[in-house]
Specification:
Elements: H1 2-10, H2 17-22, H3 29-33, H4 38-43, H5 47-53, H6 56-67, H7 81-90, H8 95-103, H9 105-112, H10 123-139, H11 144-151, H12 155-161, H13 166-177, H14 182-194, H15 197-204, H16 211-234, H17 243-248, H18 251-262, H19 268-281, E1 285-287, E2 301-303, H20 308-314, H21 318-326, E3 334-336, E4 339-341, H22 347-362, H23 365-374, H24 376-386, H25 391-406, H26 446-454, H27 457-473, H28 482-497, H29 502-510, H30 514-535, H31 551-557, H32 561-582, H33 600-606, H34 619-631, H35 666-677, H36 687-694, H37 701-719
Length: 720
Amino acid sequence: LCPIIMFWKFDLNTTSHVDKLLDKEDVTLHELMDEDDILQECKAQNRKLLDFLCQQHCMEELVNLITHEPPVEMDEKVRFKYPNTACELLTSDVPQINDKLGGDETLLNILYDFLDHEPPLNPLLASFFSKTIGNLIARKTEQVVIAFLRKKDKFISLVLKHIDTSAMMDLLLRLISCVEPATLRQEVLNWLNEARIIQRLVELIHSSQDEDRQSNASQTLCDIIRLSRDQSNQLQDIPEPDPLLTALESQECVEQLLRNMFDGEQTENCIVNGTQVLLTLLETRRSGVEGLMDSYTQGFERSYTVNSSILHGIEPRLKDFHQLLLSPPKKTAILTTIGVLEEPLGNARLHGSRLIAALLHTNTPSINQELCRLSTMDLLLDLFFKYTWNNFLHFQVELSIAAILSHSVQEGKTTTNDLGSKEEVLNGNVGTENSEQTPENSTENIMVTHLFQKCCLVQRILDAWEANDKIQAEGGMRRGNMGHLTRIANAVVQNMEKGPMQTQISEFIKELPEDCRGRWESFVEETLTETNRRNTVDLVSTHHLHSSSEDEDIESAFPNELSLQQAFSEYQIQQMTANFVDQFGFNDEEFADQDDNINAPFDRIAEINFNIDADDDSPNASLFEACCNERIQQFDDNEEEEDIWEEKEITYATQVKSRTRFGASQTSESSSKSDLENGDHDGSVDSEEEEETEQQPPPSSANTTKNNVSEQKDSDSSEG
């Protein structure tokens, strides 16, 4: 009886204030929208509320709120409160509201009239409009909304008129990607293609247009390419190809885009936006993860083949990109952290270098020949060494060289490897495997010949390295391109040792002048090897990197430095985990019985603090070696295997003689282990082993704590 009384006392079954307002005969829409829980009640499909909202005058008022500017005299803090609430109600995904809005042509006309406003549109209202129309396109299964838009002859023109507002770009993409089913989507694509949507977007990428229109038009085209390719891969049974993608990949479209970029006045904004479209067309592989939003598709990649018509359209314009690298649109001097840069590289030249890298990645013979004729790679290397602090440029030059070195001669074949995968070739490990193709099956690659003979890649690497060493020896700063130069040198060495162009690269190295070849061999064996060794050292390591007579002894004790670094990292993680447990109030007394704690051995290891010193005679070195000998047991196949489940007689000692300290020798550990196997749980050792143990370095405070726990356990055992 008592719980029932308490329930009624607090009156938990309260009625929403929205319902109380709806009971009033003269309630207005604004009164309801002032309530904080109106959206929650709407999504909960409150019958009384939905009946009120779906009245004709209420729906018209909601649509007017999202399509007309609020009065200017209103307080700015609440000016867009009602339009925002109206948009949330109209897009709440409630079937009754969707049916009313999508099935009433009067409401759709009020919504559509928003496009008749003169630009620029209010960006907030434009987002409300785009969200509402997009919701109808995605949620309304009937073809009413699509049919309504197709009847409007000026719809595409009005959307492109306001393309400088990003919400209009979103609306176009919703039309392309969110229409279901597939047959209806194909009809929409055909309708947009008949309206020449692609060609009209390309026309907007022109120096005569403002920057926002060019940028949004370029981004829309890039998104259309990616969406169309993804959906084509997912829906293999499509009866006809995507007409928008076909139009974009056509040679005529590519040529029109390039004319807009280079014919007439050349502006950086137009060149950059046009190049972004070309780079998207040249994408051969794209990750399925966008910002790590979907963990299930992490690491998934889709492969595409570059259409030859794209390459045919670009090839005649390579001279324009080469000229762009020579003389870009003028830019004023800029102040950087290293001083004033009188002639900045500029975004246009950076995008030009990106396009060259993407074209080299396709390994197209005719394009390779044209680039050799223009000496474009030689020009890129000039820029590489001129702009020593522009790592964006350095990375593109690195990718270009990697593409040249790792491609065999494949006449007329377009590769489908990811441009970004070239980065894996250049991580400093010269011996990393690259391609399984045999050098005997490859012929001369004109780009490799051009790179080593005309561009003098090896000589440039050596000269730049020696110049940097001279600057640093005089107290100057290390050049900003030395990291990428190291990776380029590693790529040369790697592909010379094992790669599709192995024979050709080796011949060029042999044909170098004797003094240059000697410098290169000395550079690879000494300088580059030492640089790679330093680059592989973990930054958190605390041991000193110094050259002394004891280095050989250190290497013999620790043959694999990377393994040591990995072990140290694991030790840090274990220590962090142990401290994490301690922070929650656990102490050693609560874990006196170590047999009940499955993580006890790891906790002991985690709490041992040690330092690695180059001196083999130091106590720390002996401590570390003893720890390894104690914890790492060697497997001996000759030893007779023992059944660990075999029942044995267990005897208990009456008194604890001593305890084994951490750092005991292998003999002491074996003896202790043998005693335990024979039922001796008192932890005692003979006098000789005690003396040997006492000669070891004193344990750390953490170890002393663990020994106290062990001693307490032994005392408990003796008492038992």
